[in-house]
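Need tokens for this chain, all 268 residues.
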Amino acid sequence: MGLIAEMAGIASGLVPSAEAPLQKKVGNRLLQLLAPEDFRLLAPGLQQVPLEPGAVLARAGDPIEDLCFPEAGVIGFVDVLDSGQRLAVALTGKEGFVGWPLLLGNDRWPHEAVVRAERGTALRIAAADLRDAMAASERIRTVLLRYTSSLTAQMTRTIVSNLIHPVERRTARWFLLYHDRVSGDEIVITHEELGVMLGVRRESITQALHLLEGEGALKGFRGRLMVRDRQVLERFAGETYGFAEAEYARLVVGDASDAGERSDAAAI
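Here are the structure tokens for all 268 residues:
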């Protein structure tokens, strides 16, 4: 049994097992965008599960036995090196899903998937049920692959940013990615998590935070940060932010102009 499936036992009562969710009531953007007949192929296998900060939904090397479509909350994808060092590569939320490697022919998780920032819920589905639905409707596979392409764009921009941009620019970008996906302006985050995101020493993280606070972009509290001025964050992030969001709007939503406001995740 996969880790996501194990969490389903904790969530008993959120969605009765005999009652499939209604499309108009689900909180996940991809499921909302499906044609009604395609959603009906998935609905019997969907089960709502809780997302608790710090919960590990997938571990690198484990079989992909189930996937999930977040309705609220933030999921971080983390690469784990042989040395044990952990580095963040991307985020998703209610705009996406967890389990995209399955669509690329991989039957094992290549990364960790960890719940971040705040509590939420997700709709879990067994990998076998998703495969059956995609076999019955190529449109489901197309929607999920288009999202996967936009996530790849986010990962690519992470690589580029890590190579050529200063810490404060990279920090601003990650906070924009979080801000897109949390329910308000407050982001619960620790120095340890920032280290996973940025891959730098604690002193460098502190300096970047002080700079962003001094510019009025953020306000720091113990264990959390408040976004005070998103436009300042966007100015600091520059070209590191916006491309993947525009790709999501173009490929998934179908209207690239949506990305010019508060990104795909925030606009949902």
